[in-house]
Amino acid sequence: MKRKVVFIADADSWSAEALIARFSQDGANLILNSSREDKEWDNMIVSCTAAGSNLLVTHADLSSSGDISTMLDQAEKLLGPVDVMIHNCCAISPASVESCEETEFVEIMRKNAKSAFFCTQALGKRMAARGFGSMIFVSSIHNEKPTGSSFAYSASQGSVKMLAHEAALFLGRSGIRVNVIEMGPVEGSDTTFQSPVSGLYDDYRYKVPGGKLGTAKDLAELAFFLAGEEAGYLNGADIRLDGGFLLHYMDHRMNKPAGEETRTP
């Protein structure tokens, strides 16, 4: 990754800090897109510089193809063309199929799915002209598994997954690899996906067979692998990073620590 240029679509996301740390550690130059004009980046810039990584913070509207193109033109002059795209936009709000307002649905789809499309289109053309590149979509197990609490989020992640598949097929002919990370439960997921109709996240940490939740660092390590040459034959893959969470189906056999009361079936 040394001197490779990595674009992180949402520098304000829960996953961003770990991604920045992992890629800068190996000397990658970073383009961080943030929607927050008031966010302080001084400490991050110092940290990345100390690791030998150059950092550029941008504020492009990723649902605007013109905004993305302008941002990429400026970024290329400073750091060079993008080698790795990490789309990690994951806007979420509680909304059921019955109650979701049109504005809420459109906003979630704009932030997650529309931004993924325009980023893929803009960067795909530039990468194809050079004959190589890697695109990584940070998605969720809920691109297939309903949340029972945020229908618009699930719909947007399903859209991102199919977009990635189509892109892998088309862009793969130009030497570009496109893969999806389907992230499972992390700390706080039971609150994020609290549902009146689904018990999926009840005692969720014990539904991971190993009894340990995933972290942003786990995600960053996998993204780093997918971005590199070691993953050269991986294209169009959906990698479920959930510790086996979705394999669980019997609550009374949860892997609870000794001393905790075990549920009865």
Please name the defining characteristics of this protein.
single chain; 265 residues; 7 strands; Rossmann fold; 7 helices
Q: Name the shape in a single word.
A: globular
Q: What is the architecture at the second tier of CATH?
A: 3-Layer(aba) Sandwich
Total number of distinct structural domains: 1
- Overall pLDDT: 92
- Percent of residues in helices: 25-40%
How much strand content do the residues show?
5-15%
Order of neighbouring strands in the sheet with most strands: 3-2-1-4-5-6-7
CATH evolutionary superfamily: NAD(P)-binding Rossmann-like Domain
Distance between the termini: 50 Å
InterPro entries: NAD(P)-bd_dom_sf, SDR_fam
Keywords: Oxidoreductase
Family: Belongs to the short-chain dehydrogenases/reductases (SDR) family.
Protein name: Glucose-1-dehydrogenase
Task: Describe the protein's architecture and organization.
The chain is of the alpha/beta class. Helix content is 37%, strand content 14%. The chain is built from seven helices and seven strands. It has a seven-stranded parallel beta sheet with strand order 3-2-1-4-5-6-7, with helices on both faces. Strand 2 (29-33), helix 2 and strand 3 (55-58) form a beta-alpha-beta unit.
